[in-house]
Write a structure and sequence with these properties.
The chain has a domain at 70-144. It contains ten helices and four strands; from the N terminus they run αβαβααααααβαβα. The protein starts with a helix and ends in an 8-residue tail after the last helix. The model has no long low-confidence stretch (mean pLDDT 90). The chain is of the alpha/beta class. It comes from Phaetusa simplex (large-billed tern). GO terms for molecular function: acetylesterase activity; monoacylglycerol lipase activity. Belongs to the AB hydrolase superfamily. AB hydrolase 4 family. Residues 2-203 form the AB hydrolase-1 domain.
Length: 246
Amino acid sequence: GCTWEFGAMVNYIKKTYPQTQLVVVGFSLGGNIVCKYLGESQANQERVLCCVSVCQGYSALRAQETFMQWDQCRRFYNFLMADNMKKIILSHRQVLFGDNMKKPQSLSDADLSKLYTATSLMQIDDNVMRKFHGYSSLKEYYEEESCLQYLHRIYVPLLLVNAADDPLVHESLLSIPRALSEKRENVMHVLPLHGGHLGFFEGSVLFPEPLTWMDKLVVQYANAICQWEKTKSHCSDTEQPVSGQE
């Protein structure tokens, strides 16, 4: 959920191309980052035409319980992702935790050693990541870094896409985008029955189409928003004030 790096990139683009308007798209965890970034400040939404979030879980705090369940092999996916996260952190441990780096006081060498035995993302987050970012508890870390509390502050058109058979995003989490779309006119929630986690393949199993349904949806939605913005701007430019006499 850390948005400073993404924000730096966006600000650079805005500064370099001052006439450009942006379409913001995030996939999985990236969906959490882009939604949190937009909701953190009204200024972050300036020159943003719309936002698309695909297959995110919205609340890490609510997702942690479901991530330990075995249905749809969710616990196994948790193990695989934790193993991959360990490899990434350990391969850059000198840069992240080397002698020249100032580590948070709450992060000890013993915590780093627990990376080798971690079997879930929650263990890594509790022993390393939340301490690295200065949080006193895993609950606080998950609450503050999830986009859940920021979604209602997004005022640009927002498309939230999930799949009913996503093995990583439990169905209980889908009440979040559903409720938001019912309350906010700028929010649309799309929930196809099939798609898995960032799958959405079309065609046969052995020979799927090169472009997925997800690719087409993002492009078509962004194109529709751009056309709507263009038409709105054109109408505003051509409207003439009507004056009357009494």
